[in-house]
TrEMBL record:
Note: Carbon 2 of the heme B porphyrin ring is defined according to the Fischer nomenclature.
Entry EC no(s): 2.5.1.141
Gene coding for it: ctaB
Catalytic function, reaction form: heme b + (2E,6E)-farnesyl diphosphate + H2O = Fe(II)-heme o + diphosphate
PROSITE patterns given in the database record: UBIA (PS00943)
Keyword Transferase in record: yes
Main location: membrane
Pfam families named in the record: UbiA
NCBIfam families xrefs: cyoE_ctaB, PRK04375.1-2
Protein name: Protoheme IX farnesyltransferase
Family indicated by similarity: Belongs to the UbiA prenyltransferase family. Protoheme IX farnesyltransferase subfamily.
Amino acid sequence: MQETTWTSADQRGFLSLLNDYYQLTKPRLILLFLITTAASMELASQGEVNPWLFLVTLVSGALAAGSANTINCLYDRDIDGIMERTRHRPLPSGRVQPWEALVFAIALAMTSFLLLTIFANLLSGLLAMAGIAVYVGVYTHWLKRSSSKNIVIGGAAGAIPPLVGWAAVTGELAWPAWVLFAIIFIWTPPHFWPLAMLIQDDYARVNVPMLPVVDGDGVTAKQIFIYTLALVPTTLLLVYPFGVSGFLYGAIALVLGGMFIYRAWELMQAPSDKDEARSLFKFSILYMMLLCAAMAIDSLPFTQECLTSLTTAIAAMGTR
């Protein structure tokens, strides 16, 4: 009986430790990175991506993002221990030691690079490592604690996954890949700033100069609206002039963009309304998920065949 009890306790301890390491990777953030990577791969392959390459690239992307997020937790463990929403994380609570987190992050990064280099190509592996470097070096170390524009420039790290996906499929970076980069880059501030508006007291407590802390809710809401206005025409560049997406994607991008602009406008009218900020933050996530889904569905050969048949049928009806 005693042996069974100890075994059960050990199992619970092991599962708890696994969960701590899992939490270090910030899995909720990784999901969006994988969605943008998947959409990029579908677009680059015109809906005919190799399933094995698709799987390896997504796993490698998750490992690279997990590595970057773990290093971010390691670097920010001092302020995480003070902020209400982060003080129970594995590092500030002492459940994982800093050296353990560092070894874990290095192992994730090396595995990601090797998988991409072996099963995709060197360019995609180097881009994944560049994403880690930008997130850790530019955003976490340089800008996060020194500039209210930290998320604008540092957001480039979150825009690299589509480049990884495109490079994994094609071995190069064509202009449409950079459009995908630009979409994520411009989307990041109006996605993150509403969240920063909600938790600005935490940021103020640890002297992190997020835009709402430095310039207030009114200025932040205006900046969100400006970036949202810039986002919509950027998404349409995939339709024209680059022509890698078609009518279906373009229509969905316009509808989603209009909804995003409307919600950003609503927040600008009431910048101190926490419910509006929360609603916009949640919608920004849904927006990106649906936009990527539209890219992927539009790129499928089946979709193109259906649209071609529909266009032909309408044209035939018009000639009667």
